[in-house]
């Protein structure tokens, strides 16, 4: 295997952000090497719901959410919870989260998210064409369902927000109309919003692996290496791993929920936390799912993965080291059996992943403040798959010294 050189770009992290970024840099003529401690799509990018959620513009930190948060956080099995053993450690993140709920900061985050979403949607279509990825895509829309008029009415501001940002949708106000899109739902779901332009991949792991294969075919190198630190030098960057030091001309940090540890070796303290998400994947589909289903008030989704179904969601703030609480996954499966009559809750495989989450729901996409040869591209929360192609194009623009397609000011790590 050839050794890294000072003319090579090293991308740290072979999840969907890192792989897509490596491919974008390679397309512009750079020699690129991917490093990952476990391999391609070995962690969070493997088990997500497979959705390109371009319609999801609203950050978690909305004005007024702090009045509701205590009730949610104290429910260990609710859609948003905080593990008591982690409460003290997450206090700095919660402070930044509280600041992000200010109306002016919220509006700025929505505007930034909208711009990144538009770019990412366009970039994804370019990427699909380039890598012959159409067979790995499903264009079946998304159905967001509500129980009764009160829940539906409470959702209308979010739908108005989407309308203002040019997202097409239809609001449905009877079980009969809902059944035309998705038959078989429990009739308790009386209202819904349908987003026809919503996309899914048939399998997020397969999509990431497909991109990695294209990267390797074009001459890219993927290496398993546990990166411990980054050290800038006058003519390059040293990457300290568990087995030695690599040197590169530039480094891209896209290591997901572990990225802030690497940023700290450069002196940058970025308030990255983990939204621990749980799911259960069933190898065969016992329910005829025709669109991506979102149970908004229960905090989970059901999507098609391969020939089967995946039930997942919820947010647990618990860091990287606490053991999983798979009761959360079990509750989602029990609800699915109730909401989708005929669904068989047996035979699934449970999984937990670490979504890299910043307090304002915006990623960091920028050169490291004190290390011009290092670029950060992490912190996308539950939108990593969605924003991967757009992020890759923005990183490629930074490396080339071009004006990026959207302003990167909202994604600067110094905003914290």
From TrEMBL:
Top-level taxon of the source organism: Bacteria
UniProt signal peptide: none
GO terms assigned for molecular function: oxidoreductase activity
Gene3D superfamilies listed in its UniProt record: D-Amino Acid Oxidase, subunit A, domain 2 (3.30.9.10), FAD/NAD(P)-binding domain (3.50.50.60)
GO CC entries: cytoplasm
InterPro entries, A to Z: FAD-dep_OxRdtase, FAD/NAD-bd_sf
Keywords: Oxidoreductase
PANTHER family: GLYCINE OXIDASE, SARCOSINE DEHYDROGENASE-RELATED
Protein name: FAD-dependent oxidoreductase
Organism: Gemmobacter lutimaris
């Amino acid at each position: 295997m050839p050794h890294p050189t000072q003319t090579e770009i090293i991308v740290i992290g072979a999840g969907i952000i890192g792989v897509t970024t490596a491919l974008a840099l390679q397309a512009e003529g750079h020699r690129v090497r991917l490093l990952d401690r476990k391999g391609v799509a070995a962690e969070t990018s493997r088990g997500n719901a497979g959705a390109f959620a371009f319609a999801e513009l609203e950050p978690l930190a909305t004005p007024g959410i702090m009045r509701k948060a205590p009730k949610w956080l104290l429910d260990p099995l609710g859609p948003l919870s905080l593990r008591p053993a982690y409460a003290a450690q997450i206090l700095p993140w919660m402070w930044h989260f509280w600041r992000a709920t200010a109306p002016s900061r919220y509006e700025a985050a929505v505007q930034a998210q909208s711009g990144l979403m538009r770019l990412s949607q366009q970039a994804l279509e370019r990427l699909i064409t380039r890598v012959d990825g159409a067979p790995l895509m499903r264009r079946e829309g998304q159905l967001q369902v509500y129980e009764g008029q009160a829940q539906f009415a409470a959702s209308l501001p979010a739908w108005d927000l989407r309308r203002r940002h040019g997202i097409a949708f239809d609001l449905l106000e009877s079980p009969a109309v809902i059944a035309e899109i998705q038959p078989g739902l429990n009739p308790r779901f009386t209202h819904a919003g349908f987003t026809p332009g919503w996309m899914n991949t048939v399998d997020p792991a397969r999509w990431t692996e497909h991109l990695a294969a294209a990267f390797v075919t074009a001459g890219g190198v993927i290496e398993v290496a546990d990166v411990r630190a980054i050290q800038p030098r006058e003519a390059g960057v040293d990457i300290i791993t568990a087995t030695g030091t690599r040197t590169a001309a530039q480094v891209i940090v896209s290591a997901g929920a572990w990225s802030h540890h690497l940023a700290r070796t450069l002196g940058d303290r970025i308030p990255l936390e983990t939204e621990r998400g749980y799911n259960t994947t069933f190898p065969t589909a016992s329910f005829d799912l025709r669109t991506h289903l979102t149970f908004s008030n229960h905090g989970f989704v059901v999507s098609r993965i391969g020939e089967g179904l995946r039930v997942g969601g919820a947010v647990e703030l618990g860091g990287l080291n606490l053991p999983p609480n798979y009761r959360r996954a079990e509750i989602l499966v029990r609800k699915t059996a109730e909401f989708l009559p005929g669904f068989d809750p047996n035979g699934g495989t449970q999984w937990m992943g670490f979504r890299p989450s910043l307090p304002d729901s915006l990623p960091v996409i920028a050169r490291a403040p004190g290390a011009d040869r290092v670029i950060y591209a992490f912190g996308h929360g539950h939108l990593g798959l969605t924003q991967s192609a757009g992020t890759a194009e923005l990183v490629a623009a930074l490396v080339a010294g071009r004006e990026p397609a959207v302003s990167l000011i909202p994604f600067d790590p110094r905003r914290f």
